[in-house]
Design brief:
With about 220 residues, this protein is of the alpha/beta class. The chain has helices at about 15-20, 40-50, 60-65, 75-85, 90-100, 195-205, 210-215; strands spanning about 1-5, 30, 100-105, 110-115, 140, 150, 155-160, 175-180, 185-190. The chain is globular, with a radius of gyration of 16 Å.
């Protein structure tokens, strides 16, 4: 069985489309949260994830957009939250609010969280990866850092597929991963997309210009 893992879409429709266009055939797609925030297509990204019935967990930006609480967010993140709250209809906001903090899928073999199994807001960087993050599952999928990385241990796997919509690992291409549950292996995938289109839209809707320029840097 093959699973595609995506995370941190952050309202970037062109990047999400590129990922789905590049993705090989898989049996299931899972999302480790933050469908919205930062970029100018929150509604389209929510609709895509919902229409595809992708099992998704709640990221910190999803929660902030649903509740309006931006405590601890910097200026750029706060502006993205405010924009998304104004753009989304009540049904989409309710969907974000109902997202769980974790999901266990494929008969308990796969767990999906946003930041850390014990705390959805905790950044779990590659240096923090360990088999101790897992309990009874074979695969742990997480996001939040926007840094693509996987570690394969003797009988388990930890995978951050990276960010679809705002990579921060120095590679501006949209990121995702494909996990083979039978062999417990992972392919870390990247695909280029039209960043200039996103940057122009950011300017058009009045979001901070830095949200566009940073996409070219993968930061």
């Amino acid at each position: 069985m093959r699973i595609a893992a995506i995370s941190d879409i952050h309202g970037n429709r062109p990047a999400l489309r590129a990922v789905f266009g590049d993705m090989p055939p898989v049996d299931l797609v899972v999302c480790a949260g933050d469908v919205v925030g930062y970029n100018p297509w929150p509604g389209a990204c929510v609709s895509t994830v919902r229409d595809r019935s992708i099992p998704t967990v709640k990221g910190n930006h999803d929660r902030a957009v649903a509740t309006g609480d931006t405590a601890g967010f910097n200026r750029l993140a706060t502006e993205g939250v405010r924009f998304a709250r104004n753009e989304l209809n009540p049904d989409a906001l309710e969907w974000l609010e109902r997202l769980p903090d974790e999901r266990t899928l494929v008969d308990g073999r796969v767990k999906v969280v946003h930041g850390h199994p014990a705390d959805p807001d905790r950044y779990t960087y590659p240096r923090d990866f360990s088999p101790d993050l897992l309990t009874n599952e074979d695969v742990l999928v997480l996001g939040h850092t926007h840094v693509q990385h996987s570690e394969i241990y003797e009988d388990c796997l930890v995978c951050n597929p990276g960010s679809v919509g705002q990579p921060r690992d120095g590679d501006p291409r949209a990121a995702y991963a494909v996990i083979d549950l039978d062999s417990l292996t992972v392919d870390e995938c990247r695909v280029a997309y039209d960043i200039d289109t996103v940057e122009r839209k950011i300017h058009t809707v009045g979001l901070p210009p830095r949200l566009g320029s940073r996409l070219h840097e993968g930061r």
